[in-house]
Design a protein that fits this description.
Layout: H1 2-6, H2 11-38, H3 44-67, H4 74-77
Helix pairs in contact: 2-3
Length: 79
């Protein structure tokens, strides 16, 4: 099943949707740790700006990840 998705035209969209979710939540968790440890940027205006930055960075990173493919495993092709 995964090989069927990987060889279809849906693969970049599937990789983007998974990648965006993972990156968004990871960067959001880092943002909260910074807030918890330093209490800096904890105004409504700064939260709004950091939310826009979070969405933008997550989108850019997820797009990059969705366009990348690992090279095929040489051992798997010998079977």
């Amino acid at each position: 099943m995964p090989s069927a998705i990987a060889s279809s035209s849906v693969a970049p969209l599937a990789k983007f949707s998974v990648g965006f979710s993972l990156v968004y939540h990871y960067i959001g968790a880092v943002r909260h740790v910074v807030w918890d440890k330093t209490a800096k940027g904890f105004t409504n205006q700064m939260m709004l700006h950091s939310s826009y930055a979070l969405i933008g960075a997550s989108t850019a990173i997820a797009l990059g990840l969705s366009m990348y493919s690992l090279p095929p495993n040489k051992d798997a092709n010998k079977k």
